[in-house]
Amino acid sequence: MAKDYIIDIQHLSKSYGDVKVLDDINFYIRRGEFITLLGPSGCGKTTLLRQIAGFIAPDEGRILLEGKDISGIPPYKRPLNTVFQRYALFPHLDVFDNIAFGLKLQKLPAKEIEVRVKKMLKMVSMTDYEDRSVDSLSGGQQQRVAIARALVNYPKVLLLDEPLAALDLKMRKDMQMELKEIHRKMGITFIYVTHDQEEALTLSDTIVVLNEGRIQQIGTPTDIYNEPVNSFVADFIGESTILNGTMIRDRRVEFMGHEFDCVDEGFGENVPVDVVVRPEDVYIMNHQEGAQFSGVVQSCIFKGVHYEMFVETDKGYELMIQDYNAFEPGSTVGLLIRPSDIQVMHKERTINTIEAEVLDSHHVSMLGAEWECEVPDDAATGDTVIAEVPFDGIELLDHQEDGKLAGEVHFLLYKGDHYHLTILTDNGDRLWVDTDDIWDKGDLVGIDIRSEAIKLKLKND
Amino acid sequence: MKKVLAKAYLYLLLAMLYAPLLFIAVFSFTESRVLGNWTGFSTKLYSNLFTGGMNGGSSLLAAVENTLLIALIAAAISTLLGTVAAVGIFNLKGRKKQTMQFLNNIPMINPDIITGVSLFLLFVFLGFSQGYTTVVLAHVTFCTPYVVLNVLPKLAQMNPNIYEAALDLGATPGQALWKVLVPELRPGMISGFILAFTMSLDDFAVTFFTRGTIGLETLSTYIYADARKGGLTPELRPLMTIIFLIVLILLIVINMRQEKMKKQ
Amino acid sequence: MIKRSYWSLPYLIFMVVFVVLPLLLIVLYAFQDGHGHLTFANITRFFTDSDSLSTFALSIEVAIENTLICILLGYPAAWILSNRKLNRSAVTVMLFIMPMWINALMRTLATAELFSMLGFTLGKGTLLFGMVYDYIPFMIYPIYNTLMKMDNSYAEAAEDLGATPWKVFWKVTVPLSLPGVMSGVLMVFMPTVSTFAISEFLTNNKIKLFGTIIQENINSSMWNYGAALAFIMLFIIGITSLFGENKETQAEGGLI
User: What is the per-residue pLDDT across B116-146, written as a single tens digit (0 to 9) for each?
Assistant: First the structure.
């Protein structure tokens, strides 16, 4: 095994109270790499970065820097430096003294400090600003000083915590290019945290996608974009339509009511899967020759470079399509997807499985409430059983108090003809629900389960 | 270890801070007229204080009454004046705004004695006879800036369009003011009022210079006169104890409400 | 419709009458003799009278000492209170603030009584001690406030750049909390110079501070000399508030 891992993270876990912020994180970082920790807010990416920097101690696991465990070493002894989210430039020091802060602590001779600070200022194109107070700088300039302040110490790894989040769009694009350039010049390993998928795709050599404390996927930007491993990654990175499908056999998949050739193998036969179709991968034409299926254009909006269209397919699914040509709403079009553009993913689950306790021959207790359902004859009162509830067996209600349980919409995915929601109950349980109704993330809902939808199984089955 | 040292330091400082108050509280439960001389447990000083019996009791109660009444009136006037002023200042720009803010700062920076002496000279100069009215006016002078400072941030937080929105929806300017502006500013007005009230309660120097010679006593001037005479009216001990407890309870209640709001 | 900026007019008139005019009157009276003639006699009298001068010097000395002791004792307290690892109790913070809400004369009187019962002779020692009692909450609170509001990322950034906790404290925490110290100084220094009741209680009227001689002159109808002394105090306020430019933090310091 190649040993040029500068950082090796092993079995890292961290909880705050009952909430697992990081759950058994394992990955390594190669020397000189630009690696991005990408995920929505609350996914644990900042916690992970702060553990590497040394501000948070992990509950379990180790962080190896060049093969040595640094978990117990305080931040001021770690040869790493951080560019903080809102820069954290010292307001009582001017630009020069901010950058020189770390070097002065090392008690380097004044001459050397001056040479190094000036070199850094030049590198971030801030040469004439050394005497300015940091409050008088623009956001972009503060950003440069923050980068210079960290890099002047020649850290082994530079950590960047959403450094561009406070800048406006134009400035952000410019700074992205500059960061890439600085990374190339310095050759230092960069660990970059962001929630912006576009930024991650632009900057990184490697992307680590995190959600809810777990690594979803690690790979190059093209891997992650073209071959997302699950519906979360597919939905989070770029635009996509995620659909329910069935793998008929190797290289043959059914979705949207049609069968397609694809390139995926090894899923087995007649296995339910998720299928990802990127909007730019659907060929749209105004004739039916050569088309695999047809549809009617519902809307067409010009997006600057391309047109974005929503098309209702012949079997009633909604598909997002991007194309350089516009097609009139109402017109019938032919559609085609090439085998290599169909990305097939394993389904994470096909049904809700919930632990339940038998109360009597017609009732069980689960999710902190009591439910009526059919209890199998061989289950006795007090037994723990597994309840299976299909995604469409759960009803969501507008008012929390109308349901047996209360919860909120945690994550939602449009699957072409219905929504697939993740509901977080007030007790912290997760339920997955298919619905035709429109909900938003964060909506508070009442939850009811139809009693005929609850199927009980003995635990040892 | 570090934690123990830190705690020890805090508690030592607190013990020093509270020793005099506890000392007074303890000796409020004995009859002796000389402080520090324990002659057995008694609540006689408390009953004296409330029945006005013995020497000192009734004039002490009158002083407490004056103090509360003056504070209430001054705080009410300050809240009204300060809120209107804050709306005005908020809508001013540039120089004019800076000037108003500077003027508003003066009574807060000035030590009490300067405010007191200067107002004393004003009333002498204008030939005002000094008494209740001059004391209230003087209190309004140093209380209003705090109301202004409490209302201004609420104006800044407020969406500037809501007043116009109310007018747009058919409210008269008066209705818009009463139904939209005032509810938005209310938290600032309340905290301003409370602050003005306590500033007025606490005041000694300004009252001292502006009360004239008609014998108007507030709690502060009463204590001052009492101490100058050399003796401390024993009924002051239970009074101090009671005030101490009221402030303690109030602060605990406020604190608990804040904690609760934080949790929500 | 009346322009809303005009709403500041009543307050402007009020302030001209009750703030500006009175201050001008101090200046006017300071430069007048008893018959209304212009004169510098009151000011020259102050600078030639050794009693007044020594009282003035003593006041400044006591005020400086009081302020310094309040910083030395109060800063560590404020720091401990604001440190989440060392103190999590809001009640402790409240206990330090509470004395600010109790009548200062009452607290001073209690302190003086305690001193005399313990058998201390009332004099400079008890004066300083009592002043620290009275004013230390006004030092702790603004410092505590700035420390609480201070963004933790500054300390983290310093640590990240190689500063030990001790270095973080001296190179980042202390410099960044100076505005709080400054408003504490404003809330302690001038009131110490100007107070009269407190010093009279704590020394049994043995030691006079500047405030006392102003009070005595005004109360014995020597308005012009009293006004001249007040004018000199105004002058010092002007200088100290130039030092402590930050008026907004000062105002905040007084609020809960």
Answer: 999 999 998 898 888 889 999 999 999 999 9
- Each residue of C57-74: pLDDT tens digit? 998 999 999 999 999 999
Measured between beta carbons, the chain C residues lying within 8 angstroms of B238 are: none
Taking the CA of residue A77 and the nearest CA in chain C, the distance in Å comes to: 6
Domain boundaries, chain A: 5-231, 239-346, 352-458
d(CA A274, CA A347): 6
Strands (E), A212-342: 214-219, 241-249, 252-255, 258-261, 271-277, 282-285, 293-302, 307-313, 318-323, 332-337
With a CB cutoff of 8 Å and minimum separation 6, the contacts of A256 are A243, A293, A313, A315, A317, A319, A416
Which one, of C148, C149, C132, C133, lies nearest residue C93 by Cα?
C148
C78–chain A nearest CA distance, Å: 21
What Å distances lie between residue A326 and A311, A321, A352, CA to CA? 12, 11, 42
Torsional sign, CA A234, A235, A241, A242: positive
Partners of A407 in beta bridges: A425, A445
Between B235 and B200, the more confident residue is: B200
pLDDT band at C103 (very low <50, low <70, confident <90, very high): confident
**CA A207 to each of CA A43, A64, C30, C97: distance values in angstroms, whole numbers, following the listed order:** 14, 20, 77, 51
- Beta strand A157-161 with A189-194: parallel, antiparallel or unpaired? parallel
With CB atoms and an 8 Å threshold, state whether C96 touches B108.
no
Pick the CATH number of A352-458 from 3.30.230.10, 2.40.50.140, 2.10.60.10, 2.30.40.10: 2.40.50.140
- Cα angle at C231 between C229 and C232, to 5 degrees? 65
Contacts of C251 in chain B (CB under 8 A): 105, 108, 145-146, 149
Among C153, C159, C161, C246, pick the best mutation site for testing chain A contact (most A Cβ within 10 A): C161
Equal fold, A5-231 vs A352-458: no
Is 3.30.300.30 the CATH number for A5-231?
Answer: no
Contact C106 B173 (CB under 8 A): no
**C159 → closest Cβ in A76, A149, A150:** A76
Among candidate residues A312, A228, A340, the one with its CA nearest the CA of residue A274: A228
Of B121, B125, B240, Cβ closest to residue C110:
B240
Task: Report the DSSP pairing between strands A307-313 and A293-302.
Answer: antiparallel
Question: Are the Cβ atoms of A75 and C159 closer than 8 angstroms?
Answer: yes
CB nearest to B88's CB, from C6, C211, C241: C6
- Average pLDDT for runs of 10 along chain A of length 461: 78 88 92 94 90 91 91 90 90 92 92 94 90 90 92 93 88 90 92 93 94 93 91 89 92 93 90 92 91 93 91 92 92 93 89 89 88 85 88 89 88 87 88 90 90 84 54
Alpha-carbon gap: C85 to the closest alpha carbon of chain B (Å): 8
Q: Are strands A157-161 and A80-83 parallel, antiparallel or unpaired?
A: parallel
How far is CA B228 from each of CA A293, B205, C11, rounded to the nearest angstrom?
103, 15, 38
Q: What's the rounded mean pLDDT across residues B176-187?
A: 86
Element (H, E) at A82: strand A80-83
For B:59-78, CB contacts with C below 8 A are none
| Cα separation, A323 vs A31, whole angstroms | 40
Q: Are A211 and A219 in contact (CB under 8 A)?
A: no
CATH class of the A239-346 domain in this structure? mainly beta
Q: Which of A77, A101, A107 to mutate to test the interface with C (most CBs of C within 10 A)?
A: A101
Q: Among A90, A99, A134, which would you mutate to test the C interface (most chain C Cβ atoms within 10 Å of its Cβ)?
A: A90
C151, C162, C163 ranked by CB distance to A88: nearest: C151
The pLDDT value recorded for residue C248 is 43
